[in-house]
C-alpha cells in the first residue's frame, strides 16, 4: 500500500471520527428522527438525478437502505439525543462487524472460524464491561439503542453483500433514497410535526447555524468525500490492508469528544475500548476478509 494511500486512509478515519461530533451538533438543532431524514434527503435528491441506479435487485436495495440507513440512524440518533456519549457511540458501533459475521453464519450459513469466534467473544467481553459501567450511571438504554444501531448496520451489510453491486459507491448513494420517507413518518409519529417545523424556523439562531454546519459536514465530508475516498482505496488495495484503518474511527471519536465536548472516559472505558477494537480486528478480518469492503463504511 503506497504512502499516499495510507495517508488517505488515515484522513478518512479522521473524517469519520469527527462525523460523530458533527452529529452531536446536528442534534442540538434538529429532532433525531427528523435529522436522520434530512441527512439522507440531502443526498437522495442529487443522487436520483446525477448517479446511475445500480443494477441490483430492489429487495437488496431496500434491505440495505432500511438496515444501514433507517434502522442504524434512527437508533443511533435517538441514543445520542438521550445522552449516549458521542465518543463512546463511535466505539459501540464497531459491534456491527462481529454482528455481521454472526448474522452471516445464521442467515447465510457462512462458516465462522475459530479466530473469528475468539474475536467476537473478545468484543462481547469489552461491550459487557461498557454495559456494566453504563448501567451503574443509569445510561443503559442509550447503550442498548446504539447496539441496535450496530445490529441494523449488520443487517444492511448482508443486503449489500447479496446485492453484489458493480459500483459499491453508487449503491451506497442510492441507499440514501430509501430512509427519508420512513424516518419522516417516524418523526411525525414520535416527535410531532411541530418539533420539526420549529427546528426549521430557528435556523438563523446560533444553535441553528451550528446544526446546519454539522448536517453539512455529515452529508459532504462524512458521506460523499469519506465514502468516495474509501471506496477508491478499496479498489486500489487489498481489503485486508485498508480495512484495519477503519478501527481508527473510534480512536478519533473518543479523542475528539474529549477535547471538543469535554467527555472524559474512565479507565474502564479505555480498557474496554482496547478490548473491543482488538476483538473487532481479530473477528472481522482474516487472510480473505470475512466482510466485504463496503461493509466497513462507517457512518
Automatic annotation (TrEMBL):
| Record protein name field | EamA family transporter
Identify the taxonomic lineage of the organism of origin: Bacteria, Bacillati, Actinomycetota, Actinomycetes, Pseudonocardiales
The record's listing under InterPro entries reads: AA-Vitamin_Transporters, EamA_dom, EmrE-like
Give UniProt keywords alphabetically.
Answer: Membrane, Transmembrane, Transmembrane helix
Please report the record's description of how this protein sits within the membrane.
Multi-pass membrane protein
Q: Which domain of life is it from?
A: Bacteria
Q: Which Pfam families match?
A: EamA (PF00892)
The UniProt family comment states: Belongs to the EamA transporter family.
- Report the transmembrane regions from the record: 7-27, 33-51, 58-80, 86-108, 117-133, 139-159, 171-190, 210-230, 242-261, 267-285
SUPFAM superfamilies annotated for this entry? Answer: Multidrug resistance efflux transporter EmrE
Organism, by scientific name, is: Amycolatopsis silviterrae
The listed locations are: Membrane
Return the Gene3D superfamilies for the record: 1.10.3730.20
Domain EamA, residue spans: 7-130, 143-282
Amino acid at each position: 500500500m503506497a504512502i499516499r494511500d495510507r495517508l488517505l486512509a488515515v484522513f478518512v478515519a479522521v473524517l469519520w471520527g469527527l462525523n460523530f461530533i458533527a452529529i452531536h451538533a446536528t442534534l442540538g438543532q434538529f429532532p433525531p428522527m427528523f435529522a436522520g431524514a434530512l441527512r439522507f434527503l440531502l443526498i437522495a435528491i442529487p443522487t436520483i438525478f446525477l448517479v446511475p441506479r445500480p443494477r441490483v435487485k430492489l429487495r437488496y436495495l431496500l434491505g440495505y437502505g432500511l438496515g444501514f440507513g433507517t434502522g442504524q440512524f434512527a437508533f443511533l440518533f435517538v441514543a445520542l439525543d438521550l445522552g449516549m456519549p458521542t465518543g463512546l457511540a463511535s466505539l459501540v458501533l464497531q459491534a456491527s462487524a462481529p454482528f455481521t459475521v454472526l448474522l452471516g453464519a445464521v442467515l447465510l450459513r457462512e462458516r465462522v472460524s475459530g479466530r473469528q469466534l475468539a474475536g467476537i467473544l473478545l468484543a462481547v467481553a469489552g461491550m459487557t464491561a461498557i454495559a456494566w459501567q453504563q448501567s451503574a450511571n443509569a445510561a443503559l438504554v442509550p447503550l442498548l439503542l446504539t447496539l441496535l444501531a450496530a445490529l441494523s448496520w449488520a443487517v444492511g451489510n448482508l443486503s449489500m453483500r447479496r446485492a453484489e453491486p458493480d459500483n459499491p459507491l453508487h449503491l451506497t448513494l442510492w441507499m440514501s433514497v430509501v430512509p427519508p420517507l420512513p424516518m419522516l413518518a417516524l418523526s411525525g409519529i414520535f416527535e410531532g410535526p411541530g418539533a420539526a417545523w420549529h427546528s426549521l424556523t430557528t435556523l438563523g439562531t446560533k444553535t441553528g447555524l451550528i446544526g446546519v454546519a454539522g448536517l453539512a459536514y455529515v452529508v459532504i465530508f462524512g458521506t460523499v468525500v469519506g465514502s468516495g475516498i474509501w471506496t477508491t482505496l478499496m479498489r486500489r488495495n487489498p481489503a485486508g490492508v485498508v480495512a484495519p484503518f477503519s478501527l481508527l474511527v473510534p480512536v478519533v471519536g473518543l479523542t475528539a469528544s474529549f477535547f471538543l465536548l469535554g467527555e472524559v472516559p474512565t479507565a474502564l472505558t479505555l480498557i474496554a475500548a482496547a478490548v473491543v477494537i482488538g476483538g473487532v480486528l481479530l473477528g472481522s478480518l482474516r487472510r480473505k476478509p470475512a466482510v466485504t469492503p463496503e461493509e466497513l463504511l462507517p457512518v
